[in-house]
Write a structure and sequence with these properties.
About 75% of the residues lie in helices and about 0% in strands. It is mainly alpha-helical. The chain has a two-stranded antiparallel sheet with strand order 1-2. The chain is elongated, with a radius of gyration of 19 Å. The N and C termini lie far apart (about 60 Å). The relative contact order is 0.12. The model has no long low-confidence stretch (mean pLDDT about 85).
């Protein structure tokens, strides 16, 4: 049986998680652990006492952010029009991926030691596959557009990011969706 965490240790852990969220959002999942500790006003040793490695910190922080994709899939499932469901799902993903580098890298990267993250990403991919399967069944998505094709397009558009406050991906998405739509 483990003892409850001391109040100061719990406070340090909370600060580390808050600052890790900010650093990972700004810099991605390879963001500086030293920067996280500095911003949390603790030593790097304190960070490692709570999180023995980067993947442990990622696992404590990112899966709930990836779980947002579950909500996007639920919204898509509730939409009666499968094309609107698909475009809404993709737009939601892109708006989150461009605002949160950590979420983007979590979904597109490889973090096998972060077990909870791997499970959350698998659910996110399953949600996307469900939306794509429905669009194919309804004949609104090109037959030759694979799930990987769509993931690659989302990934590429995510790299466009923001441009002077306007999502640079938004205009390009119009052309991408037009290319994916069945004729």
């Amino acid at each position: 049986m483990s003892r409850p965490m001391r109040r100061d240790a719990a406070r340090n852990r909370d600060r580390l998680l808050r600052e890790a969220a900010a650093v990972f959002t700004e810099q991605g999942l390879s963001g500086s652990l030293e920067e996280i500790a500095r911003r949390a006003e603790v030593s790097i040793g304190t960070l490692y006492n709570h999180f023995p490695n980067r993947d442990a910190l990622i696992d404590a922080l990112v899966p709930q952010r990836v779980a947002e994709l579950d909500r996007f899939a639920e919204q898509a499932a509730a939409e009666p029009d499968s094309w609107i469901a698909l475009t809404g799902f993709v737009e939601n993903m892109l708006s989150r991926f461009t605002a949160d580098r950590a979420l983007f890298e979590a979904f597109t990267g490889d973090h096998p030691a972060a077990a909870q993250l791997v499970q959350a990403c698998s659910r996110g991919m399953s949600g996307l596959s469900g939306v794509l399967d429905r669009a194919r069944r309804d004949g609104v998505l090109r037959d030759d557009a694979t799930d990987i094709d769509v993931v690659n397009l989302i990934w590429a558009l995510s790299l466009l990011g923001e441009s002077v406050g306007t999502p640079a991906w938004r205009r390009a998405l119009t052309f991408v969706l037009d290319g994916l739509r069945a004729r």
